[in-house]
Amino acid sequence: MNEKKIVLIGAGVSGLLCGRRLAEAGHSVLILDKGRDIGGRLSTRRTDGAVFHHGASSLPDFYSHKELPEFGLEIFKRAEKEKIIQRKGNLFEPINSVADFVNYCGTNLNIRKSCEAISLNLYNKTIVVKCRGGVHEKTPYDLLVLSIPPNQAKTLINKQIYKFDSLIGKVQMRSSAAALFSFDINPEPVKEKHFSNEKVHVQVENNRFKCEQQLFCLTVHTKEPFAKKVVKNDKNTIKELLLKEIIDAVPFSLPKPTYEAGHRWLYGFTERSLGKSFLFYNEENVGICGDWCLGGTILDAASSGIKLAEHILTRYNLFRLNYLSL
User: Fold this and answer.
1) If DSSP codes are grouped into helix, strand and coil, which group holds residue 88?
2) Nearest to 63 by CA among 49, 73, 50
3) Domain boundary pick from 270, 287, 303
4) Is the pLDDT at 307 greater than 80, yes or no?
5) Does the pLDDT value for residue 105 go beyond 70?
6) Same domain, yes or no, for 38 and 182?
7) Which of 110, 87, 100, 95 is nearest to 16 (CA)?
8) 3-class SS of residue 44
9) What's the domain range around 89?
């Protein structure tokens, strides 16, 4: 088998499952992600006595998702069998934490975190990566996969692919803001799973996953149209604005937070998708995938990444069918 070195940018679900499919076909896959943790918008943050899940935290019923390739279906079925996820009505949710599910998707992959791709030379097949401590490295590749939001892909490609900008200009993404708060009060008396008002939705972390929470933990997400106003601010201002909304939404008094953090999802939701499973440019040896290609769910992300991987394997006559022995 003619092994190819594949560099994949972005360790969200689409990138992880694309990388996993390629790696299980015998290829060298290096995944680079600028975040401290993998998962993209499937995010778990841990502090002393508190755990927060401030991104997507459920996936639709994968048994009935028509776009999902068999490779993805087998992975999710195995995750259910191994009690990583469980059915909740028409959805599936992690049992212990979103991080467990993300790590399961990235099983046995070579992933480098806190490594941001800052420039790309398609002619020389090299990508410049900024890693921890500000160190810049040149990374060569045979094939490049971008599993990042469309605006970030546009910036990185930097007009090196003809008509790429106009093509992804059809995609529309919507931003959102979130904040995380813990309070040194006894969480036991609080039985509610969430609170809300006209501007925000507040999730009680203590009452959804089997995480050990010593503190009372809340994650707050903005609703539209309030989100459009909030995301224009820096993270500190976002935190302050959303704390005011929590005080309004929660029907009892709260002390000063023991932990607080604001967060922005600049490309949080897909409002208009590309309408294609993925993009692949033969001459440049570049593939592009992500939930925004098909829709906005975790299953859209999974379908896009896996279909791109199988296109690559088929194109280079490197397809292998033994993945069912997961």
Assistant:
1) strand
2) 73
3) 270
4) yes
5) yes
6) no
7) 110
8) strand
9) 5-45+58-171+273-325
Q: How many residues does the chain have?
A: 326
- Cα separation values, 56 from 29, 42, 203, 222, 269, Å: 26, 5, 12, 13, 10
Both 195 and 236 in a single domain? Answer: yes
For residue 313, give the nearest of 120, 16, 41, 27 by alpha carbon: 27
Average pLDDT rounded to a whole number, residues 45-70: 94
Cα Rg of the chain (Å, integer): 20
Output the pLDDT for position 102: 97
- When pLDDT is cut at 50, 70 and 90, the band that residue 316 belongs to is confident
Using CA atoms, how far apart are residues 140 and 130, in angstroms rounded to an integer? 14
- The whole-angstrom separation of Cα 147 and Cα 269 is 15
pLDDT for residue 133 is more than 60? yes
Query: Can you give the pLDDT at residue 318?
Result: 56
pLDDT on residue 134: 87
β-sheet with 91-94: strand ranges across: 59-60, 91-94, 85-88
Taking 60 as the threshold, does the pLDDT of residue 1 lie above it? Answer: no
**Can you give the CATH number for the domain in which 38 is found?**
3.50.50.60
51 assigned to some structural domain = no
- pLDDT score at 4: 75
Instruction: Label the pairing between strands 126-130 and 116-121.
Output: antiparallel
- Residues in CB range of 317: below 8 A, 6 or more apart: none
Mean pLDDT over residues 16-41, rounded?
94
Query: Three-class SS of residue 269?
Result: strand
The alpha carbon of 18 is separated from its chain's Cα centroid by a whole number of angstroms, namely 13
Is 147 in contact with 300 (CB distance < 8 Å)? no
Per the structure, the count of domains in the chain is 2
Mean pLDDT of 25-41: 93
Query: What's the distance, Cα to Cα, between the start and end of the chain in Å?
Result: 21
- Are 223 and 181 members of one domain? yes
